[in-house]
Every structure is written in structure tokens, then in C-alpha cells.
Design a protein that fits this description.
The chain has 156 residues and is α/β, with parallel strands linked by helices. It contains 5 helices and 5 strands. The chain has helices at 16-32, 51-80, 93-103, 123-128, 149-155; strands at residues 7-11, 35-42, 85-90, 107-114, 140-144. Helix 2 links the parallel strand 2 and strand 3 (85-90).
Amino acid sequence: MADKDRVFLVVVDESPEMHNALRYACRRAKRTGGRVALLYVMPPPEGQTWGGVADLMRQEARQEAEQVVARHAEVAADMTGLPPSIHIREGKSRDELIKLLGEDQSISVLVLGASSSSEGPGPLVSAFTGRSASQLRIPLTIVPGALSEAEIDAIS
């Protein structure tokens, strides 16, 4: 695989550790001539809702997702010089991530941020370092949430 084909996938959310994962992925992509991809997974509407209400909830969730991803896409474009590819899906994060990896063979590295809180590293890090690890077809890079920008820059 040529370096230009290397795609670093970051799962976008509002957690502090996601910013570390994005910074690391962008720096690695820039350094290796690769690209960044962003995945945002919207939760499905909760409970029993009527069709029109569910559609409105989905539309509002999609607008919010697009705003969140746009902010992070701007950061990625500024850091790498290239616009990232963007994937917005609805469902469970782990399931949608596995589906995306099956559909998009250009993705070559998954970059996740690990929370430094006492509650654990986060659901995706826990899943992919546990039972779901065998479902990954690509390397997983885990960026500790406690790293400073300077520390991330030094290792990327």
C-alpha cells in the first residue's frame, strides 16, 4: 500500500480524548502523505415514536452531526492540507464502525482516544481491546487522553 493510500479513521464525538486522536491522526497523515477520515455515529431515536416525530428527530440529529463534523473537518483540513472524507451514520458506534471498515477498504488505521478518567478508556477502546478486537481488519492506534499537544506532536 502506498503512503498516499493510507487513511487514518477517527471516530468523532465531543469527548476531550477525541481531540488527541484527531491531532495524532492528522499529524501522521501529513507526515506520511496520507489522509484523514471522520466517522460520526448518531444514536437512533429512542423509544416508540411516530413516523413524523422520528423523522424530525433524525433530521435534527443529522444537522447537529453535520455541525460537529464540520468543526473537526476544518481542523483536519488545516492540519493536513486536505479535506477529510466524512461518514455520518445512525446506529451503535461499534456496529457502524465495523460496517464502515467492511465497506471502505481504503481505511488503513483506526485512531481512537482513550479517556484518562476513572470510568475507563471509553466504550470503543474497551470493545476493540476486548472481545471485538477480532473484528478489526486494520491496526488500532490508541492515543492516551492525558497527553498534551506537545507530547502528541513529539510521537507523531
